[in-house]
Write a structure and sequence with these properties.
By secondary structure, this protein is mainly α. The chain is 71% helix and 0% strand. The chain has eight helices and no strands. It is elongated and about 70 Å long. The model has no long low-confidence stretch (mean pLDDT 92).
Length: 170
């Protein structure tokens, strides 16, 4: 059959968004299961039911794909965290909500922890390349800083706590 046709002879409809999403879904699975070093582009393409050329077309290669996965996982957790609305809560309640949310999120999304572990093994190699992740983290860190400041002002928290270090500890 000619390229671009289905078995029935009809023209195959291209759907770049669906293709990209399928590649990302397959890549999340592969990277979370095998880490960056163990993940294989061939396995991702097979799982996504695409040819390998499409993966390279959309993401440029394994590095670009891994970075897209990392950014996507960060975007997902940051999006969910915005629903906590930390700046409108009492400081202690806000901290409690953030800690419980984080625990529950990690339980519900083990792939996120796996990808974080991979990134830690690589000493944040890909994280350092991503301006998007820095932008995604900024609102959360700002909100956490505000909660900490209000907590100090109310004498509920001690001063001098760095919001980034606290979040990493959580």
């Amino acid at each position: 059959k000619p390229a671009g046709l289905t078995k029935a002879g009809r023209a195959r409809k291209r759907d770049p968004e669906r293709t990209s999403a399928a590649i990302l879904e397959a890549a999340v699975h592969e990277f979370s299961l095998r880490g960056y070093d163990g993940a294989r582009v061939d396995a991702i393409a097979r799982r996504a039911k695409i040819n390998k050329r499409m993966l390279y077309h959309y993401f440029g290669g394994k590095d670009g794909l891994y970075l897209a996965v990392l950014e996507g996982r960060y975007a997902a957790i940051r999006s969910a965290e915005t629903l906590l609305d930390l700046t409108h809560r009492e400081p202690v309640e806000g901290m409690r909500k953030l800690i419980l949310f984080t625990w529950d999120y990690y339980l519900e999304h083990p792939e996120f922890l796996s990808i974080l572990a991979t990134e830690n093994q690589h000493k944040a190699r890909f994280l350092k390349q991503s301006e998007r992740i820095v932008q995604l983290n900024s609102p959360l860190i700002d909100a956490l800083g505000e909660v900490l400041a209000r907590g100090v002002e109310q004498q509920r928290f001690r001063g001098g706590v760095d919001p980034v270090e606290l979040y990493v500890s959580i």
